[in-house]
Design goal:
The chain has helices at 4-33, 37-41, 44-66, 69-72, 78-91, 97-117, 129-148, 153-175, 182-205, 211-232, 240-263; strands at residues 93-94, 267-268, 297-300, 303-306. The strands form two sheets. It has a two-stranded antiparallel sheet. A two-stranded antiparallel ribbon has the order 3-4. Helices cover 68% and strands 4% of the residues. A hairpin with a 2-residue loop joins strand 3 and strand 4 (303-306). The model is unreliable at 265-278 and 297-307 (pLDDT under 50).
């Protein structure tokens, strides 16, 4: 079989990453402007981000029909690479040199991962019903524990990454030859549940900013799906042990790049003119004090009167 199915999976994953990145920026801006989830639900922009997430998820599911988890999921990290400049543009800030280095490390790592995972064939196996019944409760329990212990946005981001990664894994079963049966209906219900849970958890995570939560979410998502693909679906890397070493090096580079992106803050643009026009100094001119007149005395019927 030619490599065309894998190329199609890569193309779909790239468009999906653009949708996810744009949605993340909109979610973060909504979280910064609203006090709670109820306020976000009242904003049309938030529902626009939901539509973008849905479009990205649909493209992702189709990509999983043509490519393995170990190929499609790492490409999701591109959403972070795209979200950084988009977030800077939305907030009127510039992307720092450290962040661009993070982008470079992430791209190099992803490119190397593509070389060792693009085997030229689509997925040959999906989770069985028994495996689904093991993976889903375990993931739900871990998500619940992280949510209960969440004191910062990073815990919500980790929980969202796990939920999204498991949802992607389950959706592959729906994408590859689904049949009308009770187990397919169960997988569809679990997929929707994990996807919606991941969306709501990410909205909570973005209340502490965009960089750190999105970076952690972006890492945990493919790690979760890839771990399931390697341990339960028998997926691996090309070139034997050399490919495995290359994948580890590429993963390290991608993790370092994501770390740079999450640690740095957007540097503010140095304005050429003051952002808020300064008011001219007020000059208070004191009114001239009237000259004191000496009291004049006038003789009135022999009595002195002061005027």
């Amino acid at each position: 079989m030619t490599a065309s199915p894998v190329l199609l999976a890569v193309a779909l994953s790239l468009v999906s990453a653009v949708c996810y990145a744009t949605a993340a920026v909109v979610q973060e801006r909504t979280a910064a402007a609203t006090p709670g989830m109820r306020g976000a639900l009242a904003r049309g922009a938030w529902w626009g981000s939901v539509a973008l997430n849905a479009g990205g998820a649909l493209l992702h599911v189709v990509a999983l029909r043509y490519g393995p988890l170990t190929l499609v999921q790492p490409l999701g990290a591109l959403s972070l690479v795209l979200a950084v400049p988009l977030g800077s543009l939305a907030t009127g800030r510039r992307t720092s040199g450290t962040q661009w280095r993070g982008v470079a490390y992430t791209l190099v790592g992803l490119g190397t991962l593509l070389l060792v995972t693009a085997t030229g064939r689509g997925p040959h196996e999906t989770l069985g019903t028994t495996e689904v019944l093991v993976v889903a409760p375990a993931a739900a329990g871990l998500v619940a524990a992280l949510t209960r212990l969440a004191g910062t946005g990073l815990a919500f981001a980790a929980a969202s990454g796990i939920a999204s990664g498991v949802g992607s894994t389950l959706s592959q079963k729906l994408a590859v030859g689904p049949t009308l049966s009770w187990d397919t209906a169960l997988v569809a219900l679990l997929t929707v549940g994990f996807a919606v849970g991941g969306l709501l958890l990410s909205q909570q995570a973005y209340r502490s900013g965009l960089g750190g939560p999105l970076a952690l979410l972006t890492l945990v998502n493919p790690l979760t799906a890839s771990a399931i693909g390697i341990t339960l679906l028998g997926e691996g890397f090309r070139y034997g042990s050399t490919g495995t070493l290359l994948a580890l090096a590429a993963g390290t580079a991608a993790v370092y790049g994501v770390t740079l992106l999450s640690r740095t803050q957007d540097a503010p643009i140095t304005p050429t003119a003051p952002a808020t026009p300064s008011q001219p100094p007020r000059v208070v001119v004191a009114a001239p004090r009237p000259a004191l007149r000496r009291p004049a005395t006038v003789e009135l019927t022999g009595t002195a009167r002061s005027l």
